[in-house]
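Predict structure. Chain length: 747.
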Amino acid sequence: MKNLIIVESPAKAKTIGHFLGKDYKVIASKGHIRDLPKSSFGITIKDGKFVPKYVVSKDVAKTVDELKSLAKVAKTIYIATDEDREGEAIGYHIAMAIKKEPTSLPRIVFHEITKTAISHALENPRIINMDSVNAQQTRRLLDRVVGYKLSPLLASKIQKGLSAGRVQSSALKIVVDREREIEAFEAVEYWSVEAVFEKNIHSSIVSFDGKKLDKMSIENKQMSDEIVQSVQNESFIVEGLQKRQQTTKTPPPFMTSTLQQSASTQLGFSPKKTMMIAQKLYEGVKTNKGMAGVITYMRTDSLNLASEAVTNLREHIEKHFGEKYLPKEPKNYVTKAKMAQEAHEAIRPTTIEFSPLVAKDFLSNDELKLYTLIYNRFVACQMMDAKLEIQTILFNGQRSIFKANGKRIVFDGFYRVTGADQDDKILPPLEPNLSVTLYDVKGEQHFTEPPARYNEASLIKKLESVGIGRPSTYAPTINILETREYIQIEKKRITPTKIAFTVTELLEKNFDEIVNSNFTSSMEDELDLIAEGKQDWQETLKNFYEPFMKKIEEGKANIVSLKVAIPTGEPCPSCGSELLQRKGRYGEFIACSNFPECKYTRPIKKEGDENQEVVGEQSDEICDKCGSSMVIKESKSGKFLACSAYPTCRNAKPLNASGKVTKIDVACPKCGKKIIERIGRRGKFYGCEDYPTCTFISNAMPTDTKCSQCGTIMSHRVLKTKEVWECLNSECKHKDEIKIEKKVQEE
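Prediction complete.
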C-alpha cells in the first residue's frame, strides 16, 4: 500500500516522483477535473444561496476513474496542487471527485520542486484552505454570471459570437480608451535649437533673453530663426563643469507581472509564451543533477525571498564578484501590488549553482533565455547599487544659454550582472570662463506625439497598477481579447478592432460596472477578503447578481439593436427583395432583406478571391443556400460536398459511393423537398436535401407507395425472407410484409 500524491501536471508528477522512493505514487489530475457545465448555466439559486453544479467532463473521466481506484488502496492521500487559489480549488475538486472530505486530506505546498522542498512539505502538511477555495469559487461564479448572461445580450444587439467578461471587458476598455486618446489627439508644432561647440560637445538651448525655455517654448519657425540668427553672432564662455552623484537602485526580483514585462521588452516573448516556458522551468527539466524544477512558482505577486536562498546568494556574490559588490545587510523588497498575497516568494532560481553557463547544456534556447533573465535578476537584487556621475556644462552667450549633459558609471554594482542600459557620455574638462568656439547651430521642427498604443508589457503594467486581475489572469486576459478578435497585435502594438468600440460603448452606457476599472479592482479586493476569511462569499455573489440581472432584463427591452445592415440596391435572385450587406461571426456577407422568409445568402468576394484556389475537388453542384460552387471534400465518413464560400456559408451535402449526390424522385414526407441518398458512419441512409432545416431521416429507401392507413409515403426494404413496406409517419407505423419464396436452382 503506497502513499498517493496528487499534483496537477504530468511533468510535475514526473519530477516529484524522481525525488521520492517506492513508498509513493505520484499522479497528475491534468488540471481542472470538475467545472461548471459548458452547455448550461450551472448555478442554482435557492433560498438566496448560490449552488454551483460541478460536472466531470468526458475528457478527464478516465483520469478521475484512475484517481478513485488509486485512492481506495492508498495509505495516505496528499493533495499537492499549486499554491495559489486556483490550485487550492483544484485540490478541493479532486477530493470531492474521489469522494473524500476535502479537509480530511493532508495538503502539501511548496514554492519550488526540489528534493529538499518536497521533503519539507511532506513533513509539514496542512489542510485545504476553504477560504481560498471559496474565493476562487466566487471568481468562477461571477465570471459565469457575466459571461452566460451578458454575452447573449451582446450577440442579440450587435452580432453573434461576441462575449463579455468581468476582467476582459474592463481590460478592453483600457485599450479602447487609449485608442480614443490617439484619435482625438491634435499635434502641436514646436522647435528645438541645438548647438555644437568645440571638442564636439552637443548642447541644447535652455534660456534666451533671460527667459527659461522648456520643450514647447519655441513655437514656430520664426522664433527658431530669430534665436539661431542671434546665436550665430554671439560669443560663448564656459560657466563650469558641474558634477553630482546619482545612485541607481538594484531592481527587485521578478514577480509574474514584471517577468512578463521584461520578457516582452528584452526577449520579445508574449506573456503567454513567457508563462508556458516558466511553467516548464518550474515543473522540472533536465539538469546536471537529474530532473528538477529550476525556478520557484511563477504565479506570484510577492517579492519575498527565502532567507536560505538569500544566504546562499550572498556567498555566491562574495565568491564570484568580491566584497565590494556585497551589501552589508541583505536587501528586502516590498511589492506595490494591492493586497499581494497569492504566493509567498518572488520568482528565483531554486539553486544558485545552476548558473546560465551550466544551464546552456540542458535547456532549449528559449528556456535558457528566460532562465538567464530570472537568474541574473535574482543575483542583481542582492548586489550593491550602481553609482553614476551626472555632468553638466553651461555655455553662456550674450542672449542665450546652452546646456550639455553627460554621465559616466563610477561603480557598476549590479550592472556587472545585468549590464548597463546606457553608454557613458563623458564631457571633456573645461575651465570656467574659458571662451569656446561655436561650430554649428540649427533649429529643428518637431510635433507632439500622441500617446503610444499599449504593447503587451505596458498593458500588463496598467492592469496591475489599477488592480484589474491577478498574476494568473494577465496572460489569459490578453489572449482571450485577441482570440475573440477584439484586439489585433501588430508589431507588438495592441489596436482595438471596430467591434471593440461598439461593445465597449454599449457596456459603458448600460453596464458601467463591468468596464469600470475601479469596480473591477474593488471586486478583486473583495475576493482577497474572502480568501482571508473576512467576507462571506455568498453575500458577495448576491450583492453583484441582483442589480446585474435587473440591468440585463432592462437591456433586453431597452437597448436599441446595433446590428449593421447596408442596402446594396441589388435584388435577391430568389425572391426579388433587396439584398443587404451584413456582418456575422465569420465576417461580412450578402443576405436577403426578406429573411427569415427568404434565406438567400452569399459571401462577399474580397480582392484577389477569384485567383485563390478552392481547397477541394471542383464539382458541378451549386450551393442552394448562397449560390457559390460546391467542392468535393473527404472526411472519416467518406466524401461530401461543401460550399466553397466556407466559413461564411457552411452548407454541406453527402455523396454516395459513386461520388455523386443521388436524389430520390420522392418528396420528403415532412417538407415536400427531394430526398437524398446519404452515406454515414453506419452506411447508407436517406434524408431531406433541406437538412438541417428539415430533419427527416430513414434507414430504408422511401418510395411512391402510399400508406393505406394515413396516406404518407412508405419505405421499402428487401430482407432474406421477406419484403417490407413501412409507413414513414412516426405516429402511424403501419407495415406490410410479403414473404419471398426460395428459388430452386436448376441442375
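Summary: Residues 339-343, 607-615, 742-747 have pLDDT under 50 and may be disordered.
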